[in-house]
Known about the structure:
This protein has 310 residues and is mainly β. It has one domain: Beta-galactosidase, Chain A, domain 5 (Distorted Sandwich). It is built from 3 helices and 19 strands. It has helices at residues 206-209, 260-264, 296-307; strands spanning 23-27, 31-36, 39-45, 54-55, 88-92, 111-114, 119-121, 124-133, 137-151, 154-164, 171-173, 179-184, 196-199, 216-223, 226-234, 245-247, 252-255, 273-275, 280-291.
Amino acid sequence: MAAWLWGCNSMPGTAGAQSPAAVSIRVGHDEAEVMQGGRSYTAFHYHAKWDKPFLHPLRTPAGVLVSRGYPVSPLPGDSEDHIWHRGIWFGHGDINGEDFWREQGREKTSRLVLHGAPAVSGASLTALLHMQSAKSGVIGSIRETYTFRPDGEAGLIDVVIEVSADRGVPLKFGDTDDGGFGVRLREEFRQDRGARLANSEGLVGTENIWGKPAKWVHYEAKVDGKTAGVAVLDHPSNLRHPTTWHARGYGLFAANPFGLRSFTRDKTRDGGFTIPEGGKQAFRYRVVVMDGETPATKLDGMFADYAARK
Length: 310
């Protein structure tokens, strides 16, 4: 199986021409398309109709589509629950008492709104988002950076999310399991359809990995007869690493360090966290999209490599 080669350098002997395998990012009016080798890989969507931006679709290096299509480009048989589960995104269900996760109408739901056009540097895309409260204007900002990297037969997306309390108020992340850095996969990745859901601690199945701390979580399934997998790695520099996971059996998983009471049902615990006025908190993740079966030992090696990056 041929792997994708990612990069942004010119071929030797050319005068600034782009390599046929290079990554390019084309910024448009309502989305930025990520191309590799002349074909679409994914896109960063920020049309005003969406309450938060997201990456969609998600494909393996061999081109297997692994993200749920609904509601962006529905696939036959797609479930239609949780309209806010679109590809890859970040949000939280309780920030200063407001919901930046669920989308239940703009009179109730706070939004993450793009400020200016996304910036592109090589294979990286950066977007500045305003945290638009449904009640009280902009309460803070989030800077999201996505960098697309090669790793043999896996596609990597390195993500840095910087949340800033830069609007004169602290930002309090409340204790809820609905939030974090999320991925929603297509129906084949449902546990009740035979998908394998596992974490770095050797636990398997949503009933065992939901709410538990882990360095990584991995979903693997067969799509059109081909095995494919998606993992998210939690960087050691992150708050409360290894993070807890909102890992559900229907194809959603999210790295969420804030839901300690919600995950454990222990009322004496509180996973809330406050960014003080003028402060900033960064979160780093690596998304790994793979063709074929991927053993835990290989994922452990990928995590070790990621953890070594400062």
